[in-house]
Amino acid sequence: MSRGLEPPPGRQVFARTFDPKLTDIDENGHVNNVVYLAWAQDIAIAHWRARAAAADQDTFAWVALRHEIDYRRPLVLSETARARTWVADHAEGPRFERYVRIDGPNGAMCAQVLTVWCLVEKASGRPRRVPERLVAMFR
Question: How far is Cα 63 from Cα 73, in angstroms, rounded to an integer?
C-alpha cells in the first residue's frame, strides 16, 4: 500500500476531525503511531453507528482482523487531523475492507490505513456473511 489512498469517484465518504491531546504526543514531539491506529478504529466505529439501523447495530458487531498502516508525515499538538473513511466495493464472506486516510491541516497525508473487519453475530459470537444491504449502505 505505497501509493496514497483516495476514495473511488462517487464513493460515499465519512469524515471527522481529530485534535491531538497532550497524551497523544510521544517523546519525538509528534502524535504517536498508535494514536493514528486508534483514530482509524474510532472513525470506523463512528461510520458504522452513523449509517447502520439500530436493529443491525443490535444484531451485529465488527471485529478487526488486520490493520496495515503507512505513516507519511508527523502531526504535532497544535494541528488538527482530518480523517476520511470508505469501504471496499464488496465483502468477501464475513470480511469487509475499510480504508482510512488521515491528513494534516494542509491536506498532506499523515497516515493511511487498510483494515479488514469481520462481521460477527452478537448472539452467537460467530462470523456472518456481510449482507449485500450492509455493503450498499456504505457505498
Answer: 28
Q: What structural domains and CATH numbers belong to the chain?
A: 14-138 (3.10.129.10)
**Sign of the C-alpha dihedral, residues 88, 90, 95, 96?**
positive
Cell of 57: 447495530
Report how far residue 88's alpha carbon sits from residue 119's, in angstroms, rounded to the nearest whole number: 14
Closest among 51, 109, 54 to 84, alpha carbons compared: 109
Helix (H) or strand (E) holding 34: helix 33-51
Buried b / exposed e over 41-67, threshold 16 CB at 10 Å, is: bebbeebbeeebeeeeeeebebeeeee
Instruction: Tell me, yes or no, if the pTM score tops 0.85.
Output: yes
What are the tens digits of pLDDT across the range 10-30? 899 999 999 999 999 999 999
